[in-house]
Design goal:
By secondary structure, the chain is mostly helical. It has one domain. The protein has four helices and no strands.
Length: 91
Amino acid sequence: MQFVRLIIFWFIAMTVVYFCISLYSRSVRREKLEDAFDADHPDGGAPGMRDAFVAKGMEDYHKSIRPKLIALVYVIPFFVISTIVYIVNTN
């Protein structure tokens, strides 16, 4: 029963970590897109052009591998903990 409780708390903690990392990564990408647009268009560009540029960049970001790699926050700790438990119990 303790193992089940550990798994439940681990899953909840990793979900919080996943969302924090995901939000941070998206905000950094959005900021880079806004800075890139501002550098290319010092006059501000046409109305709505910046929003369209950022929306297209974020759409490309969501299709990239980076958001999928963030999901490793579930996998890597699980394998590390499993390995440690296995090593401790075999000795």
